[in-house]
Amino acid sequence: MSGRSPWYLAYRRLRRNRVALAFGALFVAIVVFVLAAPLWATQVAHTGPTATHTTERVEVDGEKREVVNREGKPIGPLWLGAGGRFFLGADGRLGRDEMVRLMYGGRISIFIGFLSTLLATVLATVLGLLAGYYRGWTDAVISRTLDVIWAFPVTLLAIALGLALAVGGLRIGPLHLSGSSIWIPILILAFVYTPYMARPIRAEVLSLREREFVEAAVAQGAGPLRVMFGELLPNLVSTLIVFFTLGVANLMLLEATLSFLGVGVQPPNTSWGTMIGGGFELISTAPLLTVIPGAMILLTVLSVNVFGEGLRDALDPKSKIRLEAHAGIAEPEGTAV
Amino acid sequence: MRKLQAALGIAVLTMVAIGLSACGGSGGKEGGTLTGTYASFPDYLDPALSYTAEGWTAMYDTYLPLLTYKHADGEEGSEVVPALAESLPKISPDGKTYTLTLRSGLKYSDGKPVKASDFASTVERMFKLNSPGAPFYEGIVGAEEFAAGKSDSIAGIKTDDKTGKITIELTQPRGTFTNELAMLFVALLPSGTPAKNLTTEPPPATGPYEIVKSEPGRGWSYARNPQWAKTNAAQIPEVPSGHVDKIEISIVRNSATQVNEIERDQANWMQTIVPADLYNKVKDRYDGTQFRVERPINLYYFFMNTAKPPFDDVKVRQAVNYAVDPAALERIYAGALSATHQILPEGMPGHEAFNLYPHDMAKAKAMFKEANPSDRKITVWTDNESPNDEAGAYFNDVLNKLGFDAKLKTINADNYFGVIGNASTPDVDAGWTDWYQDYPHPNDFFQPLLAGESILPAYNTNVAQVDVPELNAKIAKLGEEQLGPEQEAEYAKLDREYMELAPWVPYGTNTVSTFVDSEIELDSVIFNPTMGQDLTSFQFK
To answer: What's the rounded mean pLDDT across residues A203-210?
Structure first.
């Protein structure tokens, strides 16, 4: 009987975790929903995410209704009453289609969450490998630099960077990003999150580099780059996958926080965070404008988190046992602690 | 004899003022700490630099010029009255020489005496700072040479510290100069005050309150000026002493939160306009008891940079004027805005209603197609205060519908005007802005906003970069004359001439609101049409 690969075993463990799979499916559904934004905008709503309809009227069940009334109150959800136009109502006094903005906003929120986490993961992996493998001065310089960034509360640091870059943008040599570019929040989030990933990766590299397979590789004449990226990195993959999924959830939340405060995604781009910020002004008269994007963030973050935890349990079952032991769940009866 | 009459007059007025103050005016309490909220920190808390309604409200009762606006509501509040000067200026028959005398015995809050020569140093400091107010005073003999660094002092200002006499000579007569002497730009500061932005280190005050703490972005605090009761109050009966002892202003970015704090009695007053979505609810619930609609003279408009493509083409600008729908903006401002499409707002002398560009998107698109601008990539600027941010988003969308590739840039309201008014800021193609009258004179809507000489490298108020020599000359000529029916007719004509060139898309005049909590006497709160809420008028029940 042939042996099973660790990836196959992980897959089988994940398949048995129905809750994680359900939330994974929910996340896929959300991604499909936001990817369908142009389709909905052109085929159903017939409008774009920034198109205003302040003085327009929309026909609902044969009756013409103002998208925004004279007192500035937007129309509420029409569901399918107007053939899908203003399905979730208008977003405020500009009369933009809330459903279209929700879908386009979700694309940006998820895109930023994924890309910033990807950047942070790559950066943290390189720094963790260098610090953990070389140790000594290299480790000291990298670790102390990360400590300096870590010393600032992550949200405050991100807000400060967001404020500073929102007006003038970012200019490093030939690279110039305007203040409204979505790359600004992506870079800020990746920057502030890197230390949170790099430190545990470094710790794991420190442990791995003492293992026999590393000694064997060195004995066969492998150089540092080969050892780091050919031997150590493959052994970090399961950790990185778990970090990545949990990072997506964390950074989506942080992006929403920054955008809510006006220092994340800048107009005319929109994200669920900016939608909450915009809707918050109207919370007393149109609470759904805040509740719906808030619920989308909740569902997305929850689905990524639960799926990520399922993935962690599948890739590293010992971690679950360790966690349960720590919580006093898996202790055999009668065993002294 | 005349001196004795003046002394008796002052004594009587002082006693009346003290009596009213002791009675509490409308029977409210004296003392206490007033807590207020602003949505953003004013552009500056330095009288030489601030050029926003927020900054002027904040410093109206702190830094006094030689003249000031009467502490009263409505039309009465537009009257210029003496502040640090004994009386209104004596103007020579040729209109070029203004003579004033400083009241004697005045002191700054740090105890130093107020001297006539402080006026000269204050004007000089303003020029050194390249203040946005500088164009108002360039007509003083020698001011331009001083500004250019060609002289050490302004030859046209002569002062005598012994007698308190101040003589100002102008190169040309200027019909608005009395109003300009009442602007905060020339509020007296001690000689030797550093020529730098003093927002974080407020200079000593001459008014009833002094700013004792200033933290940009967070707030600022006032206490009673210790010298006011000792010396200045008796000398300046035109300025009330105020009812509260301390004032704490904090920045609360979200105006809905500001409303919430007022409703819960957590703050006494919000300077910000009640947000559009709560406006009608607050009005229905509190009108007359805690809420009042105020009608300052102002104009809200979109500017287009006429100095470079694509808006250097009048056809393009006219197309944009046809494309913008003021009715949409009335909704964005939730009924607080009255639509208009001209430069002079209603209530301003010279206003004659007209509309050259009734909303017509089809016509706008046809004109745009005909003009066919080659540069269509533009940046549209607005600040982040609601509903101005939405007005900017609306304008951006209209420009895109017209055929531009417009990108919206929304920046913090704290430094918005400084950013768009700075020549080094790139891509200031078009955007939102507003204008509140500096003084009740139509020249104020032309000279700082549309005259070529007002285009400055920093703190520029002519953001549309309009520079039409023949119209510049008209503004200058009208500015030299005292306002009368003939001049008003000329200003009305000028309004039409500028709108034919379409450098802006004016869209409305906005009301503002006074909203206080249940502890404050609403009836006692004065809203000066130029300076906004008068902090000396706030009183606890």
So the answer is: 94
The average pLDDT across A43-58 equals 95
Residue by residue, DSSP assigns A171-199 as: EETTEEE-TT-THHHHHHHHHHHHHHHHH
B95 CA: distance to closest CA in chain A (Å): 46
Q: CB distance B256–A284 less than 8 Å?
A: yes
Q: How many Cβ atoms from other residues are within 10 Å of residue B333's Cβ?
A: 26
User: Which among A86, A145, A129, A117 has a CA at the least distance from the CA of A233?
Assistant: A129
Confidence of residue B87 (pLDDT cuts 50, 70, 90): very high
* CA atoms of B502 and A115, how far apart (whole Å): 45
Q: What is the pLDDT of residues B345-388, one digit of tens each?
A: 998 999 999 999 999 999 999 999 999 999 999 999 999 888 99
Look at residue B108 and tell me whether its pLDDT is greater than 90: yes
Residue A321: predicted pLDDT: 56
Decide which of A5 and B353 is more confident.
Answer: B353
Q: Is B375 helix (H, G, I), strand (E, B) or coil?
A: coil
Touching check for B384 and chain A: CB below 8 Å? yes
Identify the residue among A47, A54, A258 best suited for mutation to test binding to B, counting B beta carbons within 10 A and taking the highest: A54
Find the helix or strand (DSSP H, E) in which B486 lies: helix B485-501
Strands B269-270 and B33-38: parallel
Which residues, including other chains, have CB under 8 Å from residue A24's CB and lie 6 or more apart?
Answer: A303, A307, A310
pLDDT, position B159: 98
Within 8 A of B274 by CB-CB distance, chain A residues are none
ipTM of this complex prediction, to 2 decimal places: 0.82
**Residues with Cβ within 8 Å of residue A255, at least 6 apart in sequence:** A109, A112, A113, A116, A185, A189, A264, A265, A271, A273
Q: Are B536 and B291 in contact (CB under 8 A)?
A: no
- Asked if A94 lies within 8 A of B332 by C-beta distance, the reply is yes
d(CA B228, CA B240): 10
**Residues of A whose CB is below 8 A from B421:** none
The band of A4, judged by pLDDT with boundaries at 50, 70 and 90, is: confident
> What Rg value do the Cα atoms of chain B yield, rounded?
23
What is the residue-averaged pLDDT of chain B? 93
Written as one letter, the residue type at B22 is: A
Whether the predicted pLDDT of A39 surpasses 70: yes
Pick the closest to residue B41 from B207, B353, B249 (CA basis).
B249
What are residue B167's DSSP bridge partners? B99, B158
How many other CB atoms are there within 10 angstroms of residue B426's CB atom?
A: 10
Q: At which residue do the structure tokens 């008068």 appear? A: B534
Q: How far apart are CA B151 and CA B141, in angstroms?
A: 12
> What pLDDT score does A68 carry?
93
Give the residue among A29, A37, A39, A27 at the shortest CA–CA distance from A101: A37
Question: How far is B375 from B532, CA to CA, in rounded Å?
Answer: 41
B405-411 and B80-82 strand pairing? unpaired
Per-residue confidence (pLDDT) for residue B14, from 0 to 100 = 46
Which are the contacts of A166, defined by CB distance < 8 A and separation ≥ 6?
A: A179, A184, A262, A263, A266, B411, B412
**Contact across the interface for A268 and B333, Cβ inside 8 Å:** no
Closest CA relative to residue B41, chosen from B22, B58, B18:
B58
Q: How far is A186 from chain B (nearest CA, A)?
A: 18
Beta bridge partners of B302: B432, B505
Is residue A169 over pLDDT 70?
yes
Type of residue found at A8: Y
Chain B hits for A179, Cβ within 8 Å: 409, 411
Q: What is the 3-state secondary structure (H, E, C) of A248-311?
A: HHHHHHHHHHHHHCCCCCCCCCCCHHHHHHHHHCCCCCCCHHHHHHHHHHHHHHHHHHHHHHHH
| A261-318 pLDDT, tens digit each | 888 998 878 999 999 988 887 887 889 999 999 999 999 999 999 999 999 889 877 6
